[in-house]
Amino acid sequence: MTRELEDAPAPAQPGDAAHPDETAPAGGVGRGRLLICIAALMWSTSGFFSKATVFAAWPEEQRGPLLVFWRALFASLVLLPMARRPRWSPRLIPMVVLFAVMNLTFLTAMTRVEATMAIWLQYTAPMWVFLVGVCWFREPVHPRDGSMLVTGMLGVGVICYFGLGDSRAEHILLGLLSGICFAGVVISLRQLRDFESAFLVALNHIATAALFAPYALSQGLWPVGSQWIFLVGFGMFQIGLPYVIFARGLRSVTGHESSFLALLEPLLVPVWVYLAWGDAPTLATGLGGSLILAGLALRYGPTASNR
């Protein structure tokens, strides 16, 4: 999935007129959507790994940064051999910083609030991706994108309103900040689509591991036993490979549409958490999830022109 970038479309620049993405044929758009859905499916296993009882011995205050470091380290190990055409640009700096902060805020929030709630907070991102992508980078807009945004964010809002009543304000803010950073990562990957996907994702994880290494290695908390297996799966399967797949999909799919499709991740997270750890989804999750599914049906239903 990391070869042949020569045909990648050039990034849109601020001020360009909005127009249909004629650089991506219909088949390319369909393939891009499929890749993003696959990435969302793999991302949705985050609760399975982060809530695993094998990490209960790690203090709650330290667990988030420790998981960030080890996940990024193992993701780097699988991605480095795939990155065959590295090249430098100052445009890479915002992406790397946003990715590192996103990881810290998200995994810290996930260890402080219910796993599914942390992910729903992160998925306020489509709103920011839509506003920045359309208003600043003039990404093309489908007539039904607006209804998808409103319905999707309404669903996220319902779930968060009823699911975060007992959560502390600072933990909620961590989740919201992770959503803003995730939006920045999506926009960055879209604008850097002329770079090799594996290189971009490997760089993000290497930088994240390097930033958190001093803290993680100074805590004296080393993985033991089955923790190694979970951390390898967390880094390689849940975050490393999915981001390469997602970046490839972003070559032919706009940032805001990709963030809509990525809402499949939080829809699936409660399923895996319930099957693995018996944490049943709430009624609010079912209601909000239904609104998101309705939005996806409106956007991609048979009456919609999905060109």
Q: How is the secondary structure organized here?
A:
Elements: H1 26-43, H2 46-50, H3 60-79, H4 92-112, H5 115-122, H6 125-135, H7 145-163, H8 169-191, H9 197-218, H10 227-249, H11 255-261, H12 264-277, H13 283-300
Helix pairs in contact: 1-10, 1-12, 3-4, 3-9, 3-10, 4-5, 4-8, 4-9, 5-8, 5-12, 6-8, 6-11, 7-13, 9-10
Can you offer a commentary on this structure?
- The protein is mainly α and 307 residues long.
- It has one domain.
- Helices cover 68% and strands 0% of the residues.
- The chain contains 13 helices and no strands.
- It has helices spanning 26-43, 46-50, 60-79, 92-112, 115-122, 125-135, 145-163, 169-191, 197-218, 227-249, 255-261, 264-277, 283-300.
- Helix 1 runs parallel beside helix 12.
- The two termini are 24 Å apart.
Whole-number count of domains: 1
Structural class by sheet pairing and helices: mainly alpha
Number-wise, the strands total: 0
Rough shape? globular
Q: Number of helix segments? A: 13
Average pLDDT: 84
Beta-strand content = under 5%
Radius of gyration: 19 Å
The low-pLDDT segments are 1-24
Largest sheet: none
Helix content percent band: 55-70%
Order of helices and strands: HHHHHHHHHHHHH
What distance separates the N and C termini?
Answer: 24 Å
Give a brief description:
By secondary structure, the chain is mainly α.
Task: Please name the defining characteristics of this protein.
disordered N terminus, mainly alpha, 307 residues, 13 helices, 68% helix, globular
